[in-house]
Specification:
The complex is a heterodimer of chains A (194) and B (293). Chain A has 194 residues and is an alpha/beta fold. Chain A has five helices and twelve strands. The chains are: A alpha/beta (194), B alpha/beta (293).
Chain lengths: 194, 293
């Protein structure tokens, strides 16, 4: 019998419960991460949607952001940021000064599709998936620039909304808010060890 | 492509979880709230404590105040309308406000009906004292529930009462047999489908925040322990001695509510809290939580 995959969900603020429930449904053992010691032994970390300024400020305390960076650079950790999580991991955030991890070679623009009244859902073609994915965009960011070695896997109206770089994913939408677990399954299978 | 769907509305509320939403009356206060780590601000002309003191009819804020606050911060901005006042809600939706609070803190405009919130693209939050009230608001299209508490008092006792009432009822329904749910729906005066949702999932179908009397980091942590998803702080921050410090402390307390050492650290040296009001000093007419049905 194989052991359960062990994955962390950054639980400082945001919809970490939805990611946790989805990962648990896929048989993973999920740990909520609020302090550096909670990262120990993890090979995957999901950074949820939420308010990116709040997550950034809280992660800058107690050395959590440094611990995530160290673990990634040591080759131990894969990271997946959704919405606010994608903003947090981006190297550059246009127009705003806010604390962030900055690990992934992309630039993002916050609230690129407008305020809440303009939030939307749409069927999105994603490279590597055989059928469209119902994508929920909530005050969503846009990936406006990607570095070398970063692959754009989905665009909406020509604008990049899902990018992959080695062991990091950034996506502007919220797969945790739908019943579709294909992306969670892929993340676990490709990046997370038991 | 679809806008304003239920999933887009309730999903947005999910993003506030583990966060603090702060009442602000000026762009400067909004900046302090954002800097402290608030997940959203509630734009108001007067905080509830001042509404209590000044009396008179409390209405939706001047759009100018709301627009100035929207321009000052990058985080979401909420604003309040009177219960049942759908024309005020149309104004706020036109302004591009991110969330509308149909609030008992303002003077009700309709003593029988709440707003039909399905008719709007912008999501709504409503107050509730018990599960029946929460489910009625959700049935009207509300995307987020908060306890009513007793706003502007700095006294958490009513928020605790309402949170316990909702959570206790949820646990009770969870333990029921299927054939008991209709009688329960009848007694709660709530739609059967929503009662069945609570039975199956052990929670509301939308997020549930604490509001109405939270004044300290420990108050906020208490509400999280009672099962709330996050916290609204109204008068508690900007009626205190050191708003920036207190705001920051309450944000940390909500994230780390289960870590007593961090709670102790953030609770230290916050200056004067807002002066509270004991609830038995309030007459029945002065109680805002009684508003709404």
């Amino acid at each position: 019998m194989s052991e359960a995959k062990r994955v962390g969900v950054l639980a400082l603020q945001g919809d970490f419960r939805e990611h946790k429930l989805m990962l648990e449904r896929l048989g993973a053992s999920v740990r909520e991460v609020r302090l550096p010691e909670h990262l120990e032994g993890l090979t995957g970390l999901v950074v949820p949607g939420g308010e990116s300024t709040t997550i950034g400020k809280l992660a800058a305390e107690y050395g959590l952001d440094a611990a995530v960076r160290q673990s990634y650079e040591a080759g131990d950790l894969s990271i997946w940021g959704t919405c606010a999580g994608a903003i947090w991991i981006a190297r550059e955030i246009l127009d705003y000064q806010q604390p962030h991890l900055g690990l992934m070679d992309i630039a993002v623009r916050r609230n690129a599709f407008g305020r809440q009244v303009d939030s939307f859902e749409v069927d999105l073609e994603i490279e590597g998936l055989n059928a469209p994915f119902r994508a929920v965009f909530i005050r969503a960011p846009e990936i406006v620039r990607v570095g070398k070695g970063v692959r754009v896997r989905a665009r909406y109206l020509g604008r990049a909304v899902f990018a992959e770089q080695e062991r990091i994913w950034a996506m502007a939408f919220h797969p945790e808010l739908t019943g579709d677990d294909r992306l969670h399954r892929e993340f676990l299978e490709r990046f997370v060890a038991s | 492509m679809e806008k304003g769907t239920l999933r887009v509305k309730t999903g947005f509320a999910e993003m506030f979880k583990g966060g603090v939403i702060m009442d602000v009356t000026t762009p400067e206060q909004a900046g302090i709230a954002e800097e402290a780590g608030a997940v959203a601000v509630m734009a108001l002309e007067r905080v509830p404590a001042d509404i209590r003191v000044q009396g008179g009819v409390a209405r939706m804020s001047d759009p100018k105040v709301i627009k100035e606050i929207m321009a000052a911060v990058s985080i979401p901005v909420m604003a309040k309308v009177r219960i049942g006042h759908f024309a005020e809600a149309m104004v706020l939706e036109a302004l591009g406000v991110d969330f509308i609070d149909e609030s008992e803190v303002l003077t009700p405009a309709d003593e029988e009906h709440h707003i039909d919130k399905w008719a709007f693209k912008v999501p709504f939050v409503n107050g509730a004292r018990d599960l029946g009230e929460a489910l009625r608001r959700i049935a009207e299209g509300s995307a987020m529930i908060r306890t009513k508490g007793e706003a502007g008092t700095g006294n958490v006792v009513e928020a605790v009462r309402h949170a316990r009432s909702v959570m206790k009822a949820i646990r009770r329904i969870q333990g029921m047999r299927e054939d008991e749910l209709m009688a329960e729906a009848k007694s709660l005066q709530a739609p059967f489908e929503l009662v069945r949702y609570v039975h199956e999932h052990g929670r509301l179908p939308v997020v549930n925040f604490a509001a109405g009397g939270v004044a300290t980091p420990a108050d906020a942590a208490l509400m999280m322990h009672l099962g709330m998803d996050g916290v609204f702080v109204g008068s508690g921050i900007f009626k205190s001695g050191d708003p920036a410090r207190r705001a920051r402390a309450i944000v940390r307390a909500v994230t780390h509510y289960n870590d007593p050492e961090i709670l102790a650290e953030v609770s230290e040296d916050l200056g004067e809290p807002m002066v509270g009001i004991n609830l038995d000093e309030l007459s029945e007419e002065e109680r805002m939580a009684k508003r709404g049905w």
